[in-house]
Amino acid sequence: MDTQQISAPSRASSGVVHDNSRHTSRFTIVGNHLTQHRELSLTAIGLAAHIQSLPAGARIGIKDLAARFPESAARIAAALRELEAHGYLRRTRTRLANGRIVTRTVSCNQPADRRPTDADPGRECPPRPQRTARPPASIRPCREPEADDTRPLRSPGHTVPAPRRERAPHSRSRPLLVPQPAFPAASLLRTAADLLAGLHRQDPRLLLSAQDVDVLAPGVAAWLEREVGPAAVAHALTSELPPEGLHRPAGLLAHRLTARLPPPPPFRAPADLPSRPLPLQNCDGCDRAFRAAEPGECPDCRTDNSHPTAQQL
User: Fold this and answer.
1) What ranges in 69-173 are assigned the alpha helix state H?
2) Closest of 161, 172, 194 to residue 247, by C-alpha
3) Using an 8 Å Cβ cutoff, are 39 and 87 in contact?
């Protein structure tokens, strides 16, 4: 019998070999247009895949991502700019109904310029999946969030911190502390309030609210009480201000009113009061008025003109 010839094994490939298994839970669909992008860095590609795996409402700020991954904040910021430039992120600033400005970040799993359409003859549109009663959370349309939709959604195994509540302008953990005048007269406090209300004329950043003026007015009154003129107080509060970064002018003014409080004026002894004049008396002889310590006769009617306490008018 002829010896059976066994074919030689094919030469092993030098490329990657996939060992795939089907995911049935906790997975995210990421397109090859992202994972094989020619212009994005590996950091940007990995960051986009991570963002697409997060639930809606998760925080993806630079500080949050830098605390979660070993990359620096500068590198993460550069990767976010790459994703924004190629359409995988959209960041817009929105003003809420209460006046607060927030940044809305939208993650797109497929940028608009890469979405195939039926009218594009150069691209073949993939078959559309059938709609189900409840699509999985990982397949969600890319849409702009509503302005009132600020509650984060939670998923199993992932904790999303609650959004910060906007605090009242003066419900601070560290209230403003300023010196208090010894005698808070109404006129003194009014002068202090007028001085604070006019500081924005020297620097627009020093525009204070009515509540800030009420809190800081006693501190200015303490300066005025120490014989410091209004012009000197205004100069001490507005000189050498930082060129930028003045986010809390009331706090800066409170610090200056406390740290630069001048000493009390030197003690001045009261001047000697003039002696009180002698009381008026009516002369018993001529009924003329004269000053003397006791009633009696005036110097002209007295035989003894050496009365030491009589003063003729």
Assistant:
1) 73-85
2) 172
3) no
- Residue found under tokens 């090859």: 32
Output the CA–CA distances (angstroms, integers) from residue 127 to 17, 35, 130, 256, in the order listed: 28, 21, 9, 69
d(CA 59, CA 162): 10
Extract the tokens encoding 69.
Answer: 């991954």
- How many Å apart are CA 97 and CA 75, to the nearest integer? 34
Domain extent listing, the chain: 32-114, 186-259
Residue 91 φ/ψ, nearest 5 degrees: -120, 125
Give this prediction's pTM.
0.35
**Residue 104's Cα: distance from chain center in Å?**
19
Q: How far apart are CA 31 and CA 224, in angstroms?
A: 70
pLDDT at 3 over 70: no
The set of residues, in sequence order, having a beta carbon less than 8 Å from that of 172 and lying 6+ positions away, is none
For 166-187, how does the pLDDT look when each residue is reduced to its tens digit (9 = 90+)? Answer: 454 444 446 788 989 888 888 8
Q: Around 86, how many Cα atoms within 13 Å sit in the side-chain half-sphere?
A: 19
Predicted confidence at residue 195, as pLDDT, reads: 93
Per-residue pLDDT averaged across 216-234, rounded?
A: 92
What mean pLDDT is predicted for residues 150-163? 51
Give the strand pairing for 101-107 and 280-282. unpaired
Query: 32-114: what CATH class?
Result: mainly alpha
User: CA-to-CA distance for 285 and 307, rounded, in angstroms?
Assistant: 15
Mean pLDDT of 124-148: 46
Question: What values do phi and psi take at 92, rounded to 5?
Answer: -130, 150
Max mean pLDDT among 9-13, 100-104, 195-199, 299-303 falls in 195-199
Beta bridge partners of 261: none
**CB half-sphere exposure, 132, CA atoms < 13 A:** 7
User: How far is C-alpha 156 from the geometric centre of its chain's CA atoms?
Assistant: 34
